[in-house]
Amino acid sequence: MNEMLITLILILVKLGLIFGVVLSMAAYLVLAERKILGRMQMRYGPNRVGPGGMIQPLCDVIKLITKEDFVPARSDKWIFLFAPGLTALTALLSFAVVPFSPPLTLFGREIPMVVCDLHIGLLYLFGLSSLAVYGVVLGGWASNSKYSLLGAMRGLAQMLSYELALGLSLIPVVMTAKSFSLTEIVMAQSTWPNILQHPLAFIIFMISITAESKRTPFDMPEAENEIVAGFHTEYSGMRFGLFFVGEYINLIVIGAMTTVFFLGGWHGPFLPPVVWFIGKVLFVAFLFIWARGSMPRPRYDQLLRFGWKVLIPLALLNVVITGAIRLAMNS
Amino acid sequence: MNFWRDIKGTLQPFWITLGYLFKKPVTIQYPEEKRTPPPRYRARIVLTRNPDGSERCVACQLCSAACPVDCISMQAAEAEDGRRYAAWFRINFARCIFCGLCAEACPTMAIQTTPDYEICNRDVLKLVQEKEDLLIDGCGKDDEYNYYEHSGVGVANERGGNEDEYGPVDPKALLP
Amino acid sequence: MPKLTIDNLEVTVPEGTNVLEAARELDIVIPHFCYHEALGAVGSCRLCAMMFVDGPVTGLQMACMVEAQDGMVVSSTDPDAIELREHVIEWAMTNHPHDCPVCDEGGECQLQEMTVAGGHGVRRYNGKKCTFTNQDLGPFVQQEMNRCITCYRCVRTYRDYCGGTDYGVFGSRNRIQYGRFQEGTLESPFSGNIIDACPTGVLTSKPFRFKTRLWDLQEAPSICPHCSLGCATIPGGRYREVQRVKAGINRETHGFFICDRGRFGYDHVNHQERPRQARVDGQPVAVAAALTAARERVAGMAREHGPNSIAFLGSSRASFEGSVLLRDWAAATGSQQLVYEAHQGRDHAARTLAARLGEHGRSLEDLRQSDLIVLFGADPLAEGPMLALAIRQAVRNGGKVIVIDPRPVELPCAASHLPLAMERLTDVLTALAQKDLHAFDNHEHAFLENLSEQFDSAQRPVLIGGADLLGGKGVDALCSTAAQLSSAECAVGVMTMLAGPNSYGGALLAGDGPDFDTILDAIQEGTIRALVCLESDPFREAMDPSRAQAALGHLELLVSFDATPGLAAQRADIFLPTRANAEMAGSYMNNEGRLQAFQAVIDPGLPISETGAGNHPPREFFQTTPGSAPEADWWLLAELLERDTTLAALRKTIEQSDECFVGLSAIDAESTGLRFSAQGSLPPAAEQDLLQTGVTDALKLLAITGPVGSHWLAHLSSPLAATQPKPYVVLHPEQAEKLGLSAGDRARLTTHFGHCHVVIRTDEKMVNGLILAPQLWDTALEGMVPGSMLDCQLEKEGKA
Ligand code: SF4
Ligand code: SF4
Ligand code: SF4
Ligand code: SF4
Ligand code: FES
Questions:
Q1: The domain at C349-498 falls in which architecture?
Q2: Residue C691 above 70 pLDDT?
Q3: Looking at the domain that runs over C3-79, which CATH code has it been given?
Q4: Chain C residue with Cα closest to B110
């Protein structure tokens, strides 16, 4: 009884911690992205509120909250209202299985530094990312607007296509760790991070996760210069804010996944494991921002063709080769 | 080979943006640093005066006809000496898109755009400016032209007294 | 029907069409100045050059001067023709001052258009330009001679078409000046037409001076509300006021020109005192509340005192649709007390005409083609000036004009005149019909004999009467005479000048209801307790205003719908503001029974010149336009009767309920109008015969319609104020001598209205023994309603 209560309390504490950290990180990631992109284009980015623009995220939130929450006429009202929440929710839920440090021993108790160490953590992540498609599709469909619908359809096709390549790229990682549990996968990289063992898988993973998360250069679902703002064209105020925040939480999730699957998780010399973990996550986030500052958007048909004709065969090949090598090494 | 070119084309931008990341931004920090636009910049619109100090605008309504957003309105009137002038003249700067077509259309050089771009206001009615607000004491970009020196209605000079005119004819003269 | 080829396109045109018109049929517009459909071709501007390639005529010719003939092959794009046009326009521009920015013609300037069309883009002539001195041509026309291109259109309009004599052309070579011999006001009542005719900015409208450019004007086809002829006009409005009126084109009625009353009489729409607020018992209320009050109180009155305790008075100013709805309201109430004209004589005349006109109806176009026109008690310049212009065209076409009238009728053309006392007009008509002239002596006999003979030889004779002098009996006699003189070969036409734009329509609807004098009696007796006035002002329009005012004092309920500051509007218990003619769509039926539609030009609202007090408009935002409460008369009545309030639906229902108005919903404002076969009924016989007023020894005064600016709507229009003369009376010189007066003397006129100071004028063309006094608003002669005969005294006050 006592045991369960303590576990429950601990889970709640970790949950709160992650919630706080992730949300504020997401907020500041927005700022960081705007500033970094600004500098890459020889601008300052936001620098007016607070020192160096540090209060900007707060202002944005206030602005979004105080804006009119507009619901277009003849939209499917309830779905329209509910869709943005779905996006943010799935992104947040993903964090449940991400280990950010080795288990900590406190007062003689071993506390796993993960909210819930599922042994099918990886599958759980996939499940959630499939659910994330719903936020986009429902939001776009319920808006009763051409642009939103186009954006939603693009998002649907794109996310379904790249999920395949994404899954395939992770099979070698699972083969190495012999487990679906994220903690196990990190543990398996204590000597070599997976990026060195499976460089091709890493590249495929990075490309497909970008497409999966609709980030530039694969942001067709919201391509401003083609379809206004895609699936969230009709959203305003905090509902738009939820889509927005969801996207940045997603960025952190991606950072964490990359770190866990390929960059060796919390492993690293000298510094405490949590610092390594956060550092790696931020580094991956930077990579994404950098890509946004550097790459143009391909055409939509190019994107799908690349996914189906190049990435998936390549990922399959990678699985076969990795399997063959492992078989050869084991025997 | 094309493949390598594509790879290079994909990666090179990363290098360039990384370089920019460490360069000094070119942004002008507006309220603190100000920049003087070139003289032909199209911002605040003014009504100028003739070299002799009289109002240039003859209220011909060409500017209001040219204005694509219909933000100029006026009423013409006749002065004692026969001069056509604007009894009132209103520009709604809240609507103006600073295209400069009005200045382009003006046959008297009266309406001109200036580089003064700081006209924002929270009170929309303050952006609705009347003739008193628009009229300046000067000729603006052309300090010579006076429309009535060229038109035949005899306002600046006596009838027929302009440079390119004969004095009034005598229709009752019998000479051939 | 010649068939010719222009620019490789074939066109067949009626005989006598010139090539310029033929090209216009094909939408090929050849630059031209001097040609005008109404003025004809003179070939003086040399701009309309076309190359005649093949056929009966060849070479470079002026298209306006060549009649279209079979087999002609013409090119408007021939290089020679283009070059000639380019040079001609360049010559025309050599002395032009190029002052478009301060020229009122700018924006609708034919010279600008032709310069562009003619291909003259760059000025090559650098010599000096000659200049001219302007003349002050009076309150209507502004002159700026420098801009003239000597096309002669003004002179041809003013002198040839309109018959003016005081405007012409002077000088030679490049000293040609157009104007009067001496500076002064243009005398012709059609002077405004030279503004329309002049293709440049030489002649522009003075009241409209510097007001608005064409591109800012809201314009729509309308019908002039000033007389019963129904000329087409194009009013232009801006900043919530009507600022000018241009002539519209209707070849069936007035043609291309209009009179100065119509052109400058628009200002009643903008009148400062115009009531714009609905009122109930002196309290301002919303229109809806006033309508409810009107509906309920009238219904209440009907319940309490019977339906016939309510009288409905329409007017010749109200739209036809509104008039129909007034009839429907009366019918719904159950009241038989419905009349459309407060002036008994005019009422009887209009109803008689509507009942008897039938096949005798003639349009102004028919009149222009007529070869014999006889006017009985009609003074066109006072009662419908465009009639005078149509008569002039008939004379120009070889027709004869004969005037039989107690007044000295002025016409812009030659006419023989027989002064005859008002009460004898009917006798003449009967005598002519019966060809029995024995009752007339000496010169009268000779005159009528001659007239009778002319009738025998005329092909298309028309009799013209005036409602004011003829009354019901006279119009009846007019129609009978026309019927009796008509034969199988030659139908005699009739036209009668009525009171206002919809007099005929009102007369059709009035049926054989009582006239207003009967209603006045009933009011005085107390059997009628409520009066509904639709755009009428009985206090001023009834035959005897003082009697009307006394009677109307007995009313328990006065409901008034009006757009002008009349007395009824001021005194009404329930007042509803209506829209002026330029502010609404609707239709009027003119004096030949032609229904013509008009459109709304502007929406009602306090003019910006008023809200801004001359300066810029107020700097505040309104939810509603100030002063925008007025609604169309038919809208108000439809709302009151809880009908569909769109004009289209209204016209449909009228068509359905009255078979004689089928076609109403198809009329549109651009067409020439529609004549209905509807026939009215004769009015009840008048108790007292207008034409036989008791003979006493006192001096007889006949009130007549004054000059251009003296009608009610015209009087409310400030541009016409300048034409308003000082109060005057006209006498025959012999009678003046008898009274010891001579022309120019000041005198004191006493009637039962009181007395006033007048100037004496004499005219020997009028009948001896009568004093003529025009009704002049805002003077002591205001109460003298045209057509009424009064006893008066005239005392000399001072010498000329
Ligand atoms: S600048 Fe353009 S928009 Fe502004 S007033 Fe002039 S014409 Fe109008
Ligand atoms: S175009 Fe020039 S002269 Fe004409 S109204 Fe405008 S400012 Fe005045
Ligand atoms: S007449 Fe025509 S061309 Fe001449 S100044 Fe006036 S607008 Fe210009
Ligand atoms: S005044 Fe006008 S109409 Fe008359 S000749 Fe000159 S340009 Fe022609
Ligand atoms: S229009 Fe033919 S010559 Fe003037």
A1: 3-Layer(aba) Sandwich (3.40)
A2: no
A3: 3.10.20.740
A4: C101
Instruction: Please state which of the ranges A233-247, C60-74, C274-288, C681-695 shows the lowest mean pLDDT.
Output: C681-695
Domains of chain B: 38-150 (3.30.70.3270)
CB distance B26–A42 less than 8 Å? yes
d(CA C343, CA C787): 9
Rg (CA), chain C: 28
User: Can you read off the two tokens belonging to residue C416?
Assistant: 């023989």
The residue of B10, B17, B30 whose CB has the most chain A CBs within 10 angstroms, and thus the best one to mutate to test that interface, is B17
* Contact call for residues C101 and C77 (beta carbons, < 8 A): no
Residue in this structure with the two tokens 């004098």, named with its chain if needed = C517
Contacts of C201 (CB under 8 A, 6+ apart): C100, C103, C104, C105, C106, C109, C111, C144, C147
Closest ligand, as measured to the CA of C65 = 5
Dihedral in degrees, nearest 10, Cα atoms B43, B44, B45, B48: -110
What average pLDDT score do residues C79-96 get? 91
The label of the residue with tokens 């020439």 reads C672
B101, B104, B116, B117, best to mutate for ligand 1 pocket (most atoms within 8 Å of CB) = B101
Copy the structure tokens of residue C422.
Answer: 């008002």
What is the crossing angle of helices C320-333 and C287-305, to 10°? Answer: 40
What dihedral do alpha carbons A223, A228, A230, A231 form, nearest 10°?
Answer: 160
- Chain B CB contacts of C173 below 8 Å: 176
Give C609→chain B minimum CA distance, Å. 9
Classify domain C279-343+505-605+625-675 at the CATH class level.
Answer: alpha beta
Q: Encode burial over A170-209: b for 16+ CB neighbours within 10 A, e otherwise.
A: bbbbbebbebbbbbbbbebbeeebbbebbeebbebbbbbb
What's the CATH number for C699-798? 2.40.40.20
Cα A88 to middle of ligand 5, angstroms: 80
Q: Mean of the pLDDT values across residues C381-388?
A: 93
**Shortest alpha-carbon distance between residue B31 and chain A (Å):** 11
- For the cut 50, the answer to whether the pLDDT of residue C690 exceeds it is no
pLDDT at A137 > cutoff 90: no
CA angle in degrees (0–180, nearest 5) for C280-C284-C287: 75
pLDDT at C54 > cutoff 50: yes
For residue C209, the chain B residues in CB contact (below 8 A) are: 78
- Assess contact for C570 and C277: CB atoms under 8 A: no
Please name the residues in contact with C164: beta carbons below 8 A apart, sequence gap of 6 or more. Answer: C158, C186, C187, C188, C190, C191, C412
The Cα C759–Cα C753 span in angstroms is 18
- Work out the angle between the directed axes of helices A77-93 and A237-261 (0-180°, nearest 10): 30
- Chain centroid to Cα C436, Å, comes to 37
Kindly give the number of the ligand 1 atom that is closest to the alpha carbon of B95: 3
Say what percent of chain A tops pLDDT 70. Answer: 99
Query: Which chain A residues contact residue B18 at CB under 8 A?
Result: 40, 290
Ligand 2 centroid to Cα of residue B56, in Å, is: 8
Confidence of residue C688 (pLDDT cuts 50, 70, 90): low
Residue ranges of the domains in chain C?
A: 3-79, 100-270, 279-343+505-605+625-675, 349-498, 699-798
* Whether B166 contacts chain C with CB within 8 A: yes
How do residues C169-219 score in pLDDT, each as one tens digit? Answer: 998 888 899 999 999 999 999 999 999 999 999 999 999 999 999 999 999
How far, in Å, are A122, C139, C798 from residue C186 at the CA level? Answer: 101, 9, 30
Touch of A by B (3+ CB pairs closer than 8 Å): yes
DSSP structure string for C300-318 = HHHHHH-GGGEEEE--SSS
Cβ of residue C203 lying under 6 Å from some atom of ligand 4:
yes
Both tokens of A324, joined, read: 């063959």
Helix (H) or strand (E) holding C587: strand C586-589
